[in-house]
Amino acid sequence: xxxxxxxxxxxxxxxxxxxxxxxxxxxxxxxxxxxxxxxxxxxxxxxxxxxxxxxxxxxxxxxxxxxxxxxxxxxxxxxxxxxxxxxxxxxxxxxxxxxxxxxxxxxxxxxxxxxxxxxxxxxxxxxxxxxxxxxxxxxxxxxxxxxxxxxxxxxxxxxxxxxxxxxxxxxxxxxxxxxxxxxxxxxxxxxxxxxxxxxxxxxxxxxxxxxxxxxxxxxxxxxxxxxxxxxxxxxxxxxxxxxxxxxxxxxxxxxxxxxxxxxxxxxxxxxxxxxxxxxxxxxxxxxxxxxxxxxxxxxxxxxxxxxxxxxxxxxxxxxxxxxxxxxxxxxxxxxxxxxxxxxxxxxxxxxxxx
Length: 354
Fold this sequence. Notes:
Number of domains: 1
Helix content: over 70%
Radius of gyration: 21 Å
Order of helices and strands: HHHHHHHHHHHHHH
Strand content: under 5%
Number of helices: 14
Largest sheet: none
Number of strands: 0
Shape: globular
Structural class: mainly alpha
C-alpha cells in the first residue's frame, strides 16, 4: 500500500551491497516526524487559511453554481482529456526511464510503466517524492538495482532543469503583473530568486551535460570515493541520450500545463492560455524547490496556486478544485495502481526483464 514497504521486498533490496542498512533507522525517524508531526500541522494551517479565503471570496455562490453546471455541458470533455493526459504523462516518464536504464538492463515499456507507477505509490509519504526511486529499482534484476539509482536521478534532474527554466522565465514575464497586483513581499524577493535560480540552473545544466566532470570531482574526495561505483553508469550516458531525456521532460511539462488549462476552462477560472501557462509554470517552480510531502502537498499546492493566480482571478474556490483534481488524477490514482502492482512483485523471477 502507499507509504508501506513489504518487509520481504525491502530486505531483498537492501541486502544488495548493504548500502541502505545503516540508513533505515534514520529514514524511519524522519518519516515519523514528517508524516505524523510536521505534515499534519502544515496541512491544518494551510487548510484553515484556504477555508477562510474561500469563505470570503466574492460571488461565492455564483462560482459554486457554475462549477456544478460544468458537469452537464460540453466542457465535460475537458475532464476526460485530463484523464487521458495522465496516461500520456506517465507513459512519457516510463519511456524516459526505459531509455535511461537500457545499457544496464533492457526493459520493456510495459515493465517500465509498472516500475513508474510502483514508484509513485512509494513516493506519497516521502519528501519531494524521493521514495519513487525505491519503487522503480525493485523492477530491476538483483545486481542491477543500485546501478540504476543514479540513472533514475538523472531522469529526475532533466525534469528539474526544465521546471526551473520555465519557472524563471515565468518570473520575468509575470514580474510586471506581480508588481501591479501588490502581492505582499513578492517584488522584494523576485530579483533574488531570479539571480539565485539562474546560477542553480546554470550549474545543474553544466553538470547534466558534462556528467563526467561530476564523477571526476567525486573521485577526488577520499570519504566518498569508495561509493564511486554507484554512479559509474553515468559515464556511459552520451549527449544524445541526455538531450532525448530533456526533450521528453519538456513534453511532460507541456502535458502538465495542458491539464491545468483544460480544468481552468472546465471549472470556470477566467484566465487565458498565456496567463494560465506562465502562472502554472511559476506554481511548478515553487513546488519543485520547496520541501513537500505528496500525501499533504495538495493543500500546499492549493495555497501556492491561489496566491499566484490572484494576479488574474479571485475565484479561489475553482482554483482549489482544479488543484485537487490534478492531484487526484496525477498522483492518487497512479499510486493506487502502483500499490496493487507492488503486491504482485513476488510473482516476478529475478531474471525476468519483460
